[in-house]
Amino acid sequence: MNYICGKTDHMKNTPFTHKHITLGAKMAEFAGYNMPISYTGINDEHAAVRKNAGVFDVSHMGEFILKGENALDLIQRVTSNDASKLKAGQAQYSCLPNNEGGIVDDLLVYCIEENNVYMLVVNASNIEKDWNWISDHNTSDVEMHNISAKTALLAVQGPNATKILQPLTEMDILNLKYYTFVKGTFAGVDNVLISATGYTGAGGVEIYFEDKNDDANKIWEAIFTEGTPQGLKPIGLGARDTLRLEMGFCLYGNDIDDTTSPIEAGLGWITKFTKEFTSKEIFVQQKTEGVTRKLVGFEMIEKGIPRHGYEIKDFEGATIGHVTSGTQSPSLGKAIGMGYVSTAFSAIDTEIYIKVRDKLLMAKVAKIPFS
After folding, report:
1. Which of 94, 258, 308, 353 is the S-S candidate for 360 at Cβ 3.0 to 4.6 Å?
2. Strand blocks (E) in 158-282
3. Which residues, other chains included, contact 190 with Cβ-Cβ below 8 Å and sequence gap of 6+?
4. Is the distance from CB of 45 to CB of 238 less than 8 angstroms?
5. Smallest Cα–Cα separation from 313: which of 361, 348, 349, 357?
6. CA–CA separation, 286 vs 232, rounded Å?
């Protein structure tokens, strides 16, 4: 993740920025927002989410509402997954392919009302780009609303997250199935959407609500009043990155971007050929003929931490790819990473070498999620 430390005067704030600063969080710029990177330390926060529960402020994410009888048709044309399968209360992971077989963004599609109302959740750094891309393809007067600026979003993640939050609502969030959502009153606030899509692999929910009146403060306070005695902690973006990397979840701008195809990235499962959509022909060809490179997980055998952009080499020292994400895994106690390699080197347990400064350090291709 690329954080920029420094001046904060030109950055956007979330409804919770002042909370993070009051709590002593280490702040930095991420996607134009002043965001908390860590509070007590990445390893400590990472462990809190894996073992108990933690709260992430992800209000910087973007949300669009698409409405009308042609809303589903538009979503079908611009996304790779098959949104016609969604019933009200279900969500789906998908991507927006560009015209060259790359990825404009990865996103979540929420079916609010079948064939009529959908919410798309996109990455913070791509809000404008995605809005323009979808708008350009909106040839049939689908009503579009960019509600990003007024939508607050907290992700409460970890094995005990729903147990901690359940007393704050009458909605049944304890039994919320993966990739489904409910809407109702939460902590006395109306029209709150709670989903179970998760970016940590530790379970938990996401809480979407409109940032109006004192609702953001009310929800934050209610969550921590309920959760603090049970060990609930605020978590920064640093641990969000290590948690998602252990699961092998892609981060846009690192592991996927405008130059990578979903087939290369191992996202064939969200690329459905039962409908017409942007770059479909390119993906069909890649599926049929195979791709020349693949995104793989790897773990370091020799000591060293792989970082975004490092070269991946073969035994002879020839470049076979590059690292897209890497870290010292707090849960596993070893250095792990993801990167694109020539397909010949993509099988599990293949020995590869990561160029760290001037040294070639041995690593091996590993199964994702890492274990």
Report:
1. 353
2. 181-186, 189-195, 204-210, 233-235
3. 184
4. yes
5. 361
6. 45
Q: Facing residues of 192 across strands?
A: 184
pTM of the predicted model as reported, rounded to 2 decimal places:
0.96
Q: How far apart are CA 212 and CA 210, in angstroms?
A: 6
DSSP secondary structure string for all residues of 258-290: TT--TTTTT-GGG--TTS--TTHHHHHHHHHH-
Confirm if 335 and 300 have CB atoms less than 8 A apart: yes
Measured distance CA(240)–CA(259) in Å, rounded? 24
The residue written with tokens 């199964």 in the block is: 367
**What is the H or E stretch that residue 244 is in?**
helix 237-247
Report pLDDT digits (tens) over 303-341: 999 999 999 999 999 999 999 999 999 999 999 999 999
**263 CB-near residues (< 8 Å, 6+ apart):** 271, 283, 286, 287, 291
User: Is 72 within 8 Å of 92 (Cβ atoms)?
Assistant: no
Residue 28 is encoded by which pair of tokens? 């930095």
| C-beta atoms surrounding 269 within 10 Å | 10
Two tokens at 19? 């909370």
What is the per-residue pLDDT across 229-284, written as a single tens digit (0 to 9) for each? 999 999 999 999 999 999 999 999 999 999 999 999 999 999 999 999 999 999 99
> d(Cα 124, Cα 233) in Å, to the nearest integer?
23
Of 142, 66, 150, 67, give the one whose Cα is nearest residue 108: 66
Indicate the pairing of strand 54-57 with strand 62-67: unpaired
Nearest to 236 by CA among 62, 51, 52, 21: 21
**C-beta neighbour count of 281 within 10 angstroms:** 11
Q: Is the peptide bond before 234 cis (omega within 30 degrees of 0)?
A: no
How far is 70 from 237, CA to CA, in rounded Å? 37
